[in-house]
Design brief:
about 150 residues; mainly beta; six-stranded mixed sheet; six-stranded antiparallel sheet
């Protein structure tokens, strides 16, 4: 059974607007990925573009697993894919009005590796406080080593 190796809840709230998660030293890589306008996530070399433009605020939790984690059913959306990171350290990138901000780094434990990734998304809302009004999103990003 798969077990969790490390986890980290980035204490920084990502404000307007999340671009995605990239290798910590290759942050420009997100801008080289041709995001699919239909899909909410597109992965490429050193980055995962996350189309979360409608949410003004996000929190991200990272998890590193020793094998494929069990699927979670209570989230709004799920994406599974693979990505290669040069340094093995990842960070969230957001920007608005020409400024760019970065989240805390999460270390995957080894450089120059291929990773499977699963991303879960949940938009918060409650009763008449719809997800559109609240505009707050939770993301859980799980990584595990890709098989050679």
């Amino acid at each position: 059974m798969a077990g969790i190796i490390a986890e980290f809840l980035d204490p920084n709230e990502i404000s307007k607007y999340l671009h995605g998660v990239s290798d910590a030293e290759e942050t420009w890589a997100l801008y080289d990925i041709d995001a699919d306008p239909v899909e909410w996530i597109t992965a490429g070399q050193n980055g995962i573009v996350i189309n979360e433009r409608r949410s003004e605020r996000c929190l991200i939790k990272y998890e590193l697993w020793d094998d494929a984690p069990p699927l979670l059913a209570s989230w709004d959306r799920t994406w599974t894919g693979s990505v290669r990171f040069t340094t093995g350290r990842v960070t969230a990138i957001s920007g608005a009005s020409g400024g760019t901000s970065y989240g805390e780094e999460f270390d995957l434990g080894r450089p120059d590796g291929d990773w499977n990734a699963r991303i879960y998304r949940k938009s918060l809302g409650h009763e008449e406080f719809t997800t559109h009004i609240v505009s707050f999103t939770l993301l859980k990003i799980q990584f595990w080593t890709a098989s050679p």
